[in-house]
């Protein structure tokens, strides 16, 4: 199945800007004009030879009119045989490439918002897109009309020197409606931007849960919510479950109760709902599936599913697990939105994931496999190859007057371990600032964690939930913060099975030395960095290992 997708992706080539360097910063002159140039004084000739600022071609073209009246003589052409007019001894305007509107990426150095009428369109991004609080500043990027969301994320990762772990996403954000959704990798950014208002914007941030359902489908599709039109006995294996969603000839469906908001009103009704490839339906008679009892709630073809980021009070929602189906033609009309509420986070994720699978089908699987295929291809070319000299290396013992080759493998292994212990002791003696003082080491361990991206200081419980929700509720997503109830303690916030849990990290004393522990002193650590590194490798008392740090990186 994987081999059929190898040739489906064509990466968007990133063009680099080039500006022609003109002699003395002057724009090209027509040959006829320079032929009749008047002689100038010696003072003018001296001024003309002064160093001048080299301007871009576009700037020079805008100022071309004022330079046309200048009395400066023509600049001699050092290569007259290369000019278009063979008889022209000077550089004419036809010798330089014209500045045409293109699809090159342009970063606005002043962070100003401009309009552009060329082929490319400017898109606005949050300057700190993956931070919890947006500061209103933005970056303007000019992109070609055929650029996809994946290509734009790759470009932003490159421009902002981010780690390319295939977890970055472009988020469509509507502050007036309180809605967000991650763009699919194959979507054209310009087409999505065309349906957005001036207040809407794109956010650039991480989303680890985008394709997590391909890895752990059973966590996303509870057995009681998945059914086939042809009733089958027994449970459906995970591989068959995803194939049913991806295969357009099959007809699976998601079923269950949802709170549905009435159009134009604040009242909600609890209905039994069915999600199929043809649309979202509700039953007018209990849980009946008969066609005469089903009514259409929303169409999948011309709509997208969004997460509602506003509180419950705004829409008088019965639960916190809200989502919305927004028609593409809707801009700011709240009354045209189909607001829905699930009972819990798992069921909400199931409905939203199934909506994406029914709408895009096999395209989602192709988007999921492309980074893996690229990674495999790059690892094939970048795999280190041992040279002949490396293969001929042997273990040596230099403890005596002369060195000797260690032939015994057991002795060679013990020598390597001994050298490793000696190196570790030397590195422990030399701390970061070069001071061996134990007082300095203890004070450093109390603040060194604040330099880590996974530590967020005095972050509240609600804000930590919001950050994890933004970057995806996947197993192992975590962050650390100061405890609000105990000023001398810390809190580990961890996501497991789409539920967010909090674990308090307490101080414990032993032999006059302070340690940090998650399990009442059974496992002790001198600082939070050691604690995180331990639970990255070991589950311990936690429900799962620490895997994805929830970070806020300013772009």
From TrEMBL:
GO MF term (any one): insulin receptor binding
CDD domains: PH_APBB1IP, SH2_Grb10
GO CC terms of this entry: cytoplasm
Location relative to the cell: Cytoplasm
PROSITE patterns: PH_DOMAIN, RA, SH2
Alphabetical list of Gene3D superfamilies matching this protein: Phosphatidylinositol 3-kinase Catalytic Subunit, Chain A, domain 1 (3.10.20.90), Pleckstrin-homology domain (PH domain)/Phosphotyrosine-binding domain (PTB) (2.30.29.30), SH2 domain (3.30.505.10)
Keyword Cytoplasm in annotation: yes
UniProt protein name: Growth factor receptor-bound protein 10b
Species this chain originates from: Cyprinus carpio (Common carp)
